[in-house]
Structure formats: structure tokens, C-alpha cells
Amino acid sequence: MFQLGKTIVSEDIIEKEFVCNLSACKGGCCVDGDAGAPLNKEETKILEEIYPKVKPFLRPEGIAAIEAQGTWIEGIDGDLETPLIDNKDCAYVIFDGKTALCGIEQAYNQGIVDWKKPVSCHLYPVRVKDFTEFAAVNYDRWDICDDACSLGQELQVPVYKFVKEALVRRFGMDWYQELEKVANELQNEKNLKKK
């Protein structure tokens, strides 16, 4: 772990490799698990505002879940999250064949809304937990992502590079550039040890 500003960052996001392999996992992270996508307070307001524009992209069962539960819910532990369909799929999930995709992102890709998706989804496999004085930035290992780990190793793409756009979105470019410096320093140290 190391500190960057008001964040405590796991070295795993620098040392582990990851590239989503949608053809292998079929978007399992959007349909597996026991809770919806984590949201922050600002995102709940965004979901309320964009829902009418996103609704045409959603499945009938997703629309039914949202209209019954709301565009967001408070989970059992008090965290804010997206609602689920029958405690499984995220209510915003749509399918292309057997592959789960995000209805919000589809609306974004077509220029209907200017918000891509919840930042927690965009960041995955990085998870951020906010505390009073700092945020913890960790790599979340999930067996449904084994193919993404293999592809990341094959392509030699560290987690932090794979989720660069999302990290910049969450923490800003200055923070990301500091992260790159730390990553380069750690790589240089490893190279020296090999000699």
C-alpha cells in the first residue's frame, strides 16, 4: 500500500494485469453478485435525471424493477446502489445475445446522455471505499474475471492502465500522473533487483 494525496492505494493495481474479456465472461459482473453497482450521492441524482432518456434502452423487466424500487436503492448495509431484477441482474443491464451490457452506456454511446455509467462500474476491477479522511483504492479479485486476468497478462496491461479513463474520472489527471510516477518507480526497483 502507498499513499497518494488523500488515497491509500494497493500496489496490486500496479502489479496485477487485467483486460476485460467480454467474449469470455459475457459481462458476468453485471448479472452476478448479491448487490447492485455501488453509487455515490451525486450519481443517484444523475440516475433520476437521465432515467427517462435511458428507459427506451432497457429491458421490460429492468424498467419494472426500477419503477418498483426506484432508479437507485439503499442496500442492506446502507450503501447506495443500483436496483436488481429478482436479486440478480442489475436493472440497467441489457443483452446482446448472451452478453450483458449496460443500458446507460448504450445511451451514452449514442449521444443520448452525457454520463457513461456509474463510476464503480467504469473502475472495475478497482474498488474505491470512501472513509472520512481518505479513500482506499483496491484491486478486487473475482473468479469470473479469470479470463480478464489471463488476457491482461498476455497483453501485459496493468490494472491501472486498463482503467485509466475511470481513475482520471474519479480522481483527476494530476492524481493519475502521480500514480504513474509511483508505478514507474516500482518497476525501476524491480528491474534493479533482477540485475
TrEMBL record:
InterPro entries: Rv0495c (IPR021458)
Domain of life: Bacteria
Pfam families in UniProt: DUF3109 (PF11307)
The family this protein is said to belong to: Belongs to the Rv0495c family.
Record-given protein name: DUF3109 family protein
Organism: Flavobacterium ichthyis
